[in-house]
Amino acid sequence: MRLDPPVSLKLKAHGDSQLVVSYAFLGLALLFWIAARANDDPIMPAIVYGEFVTSLPAEVWAAALMIASTIHILGIVINGEWRWSPVLRFIGATAHCATLSLFTLTSFAAPYGDFFALGCGVFALVYAVFMWWNWCDIRQAGKGR
Amino acid sequence: MGETEGQLLLTLVREGGIPGAMFALLGWAIWRFGFWPTAMQVRQSPGNGNRNCA
């Protein structure tokens, strides 16, 4: 099967999974942001999330996840209309993977962060797979076919 | 990061500029390109037979 240049085989096969996961993260990050805004006290305790993560306000992390999700979703939605949209998807997936990996490392080192670290670790791996798929798409876009 | 830059970042984030901008961008993209990407649809045209069919 051969498709026209901007159409991604990877996205055709796995695009809905990427879309669903990123929409879920966008929704979660929005809820997280609202919760952080609604509470005057910090909602991320250092004993769960680790010292480094809690040195910044929760809103910053919620915003980071929202930005990453939006870039990723934009890349998926634009696909087929713009040749280099895989770059957007790759940037979004990389930002997610980096943030979630950071959460995994810091919360794993924290006394009560194991459960959170496990969840973040799983999704960091999911986003690492998305990075790989989108890297394949960037290579395909670069080959001009 | 200096204290002033940190405060500015925090103000921007806290006042809802970032979520607002993200949802505005997403709303525009969905309005412009559609919710479901082009590549995820099974495309068929009279000229190419059935080669693009899943």
Describe the protein's architecture and organization:
The complex is a heterodimer of chains A (145) and B (54). The longest helix of chain A has 30 residues. Chain A has 145 residues and is an all-alpha fold. Chain A is 79% helix and 0% strand. Chain A contains six helices and no strands. Chain A starts with 8 loop residues before the first helix and ends with a helix. Helices cover 54% and strands 0% of the residues of chain B. Chain B has two helices and no strands. The longest helix of chain B is centred in the middle third of the chain and has 17 residues. The termini of chain B are far apart. In chain B, 13% of the residues are buried. The chains are: A mainly alpha (145), B mainly alpha (54). Chains A and B meet through helix 1 and helix 4 of A and helix 1 and helix 2 of B.
- Residues in β-strands, percent of chain A: under 5%
Low-confidence stretches of chain B: none
Structural class from helices and strands of chain A?
A: mainly alpha
How many individual helices of chain B? 2
Q: Major β-sheet of chain A, in short?
A: none
Helix content of chain B: 40-55%
Summed over residues and divided by their number, the pLDDT of chain B gives a mean of 71
Shape of chain A: elongated
Q: Which chains have the largest interface?
A: A-B, 31 and 23 residues
- Quaternary status: heterodimer
Approximate shape of chain B: rod-shaped
- The total of beta strands of chain A comes to 0
Poorly predicted regions of chain A are none
N-to-C CA distance of chain B = 51 Å
Radius of gyration of chain A: 17 Å
Report the helical percentage of chain A. Answer: over 70%
Through-space gap between termini of chain A: 13 Å
List the helices and strands and how they pair.
The complex is a heterodimer of chains A (145) and B (54).
Chain A: H1 9-38, H2 46-49, H3 51-54, H4 58-78, H5 85-109, H6 114-143
Helix pairs in contact in A: 1-4, 1-6, 4-5, 5-6
Chain B: H1 3-14, H2 17-33
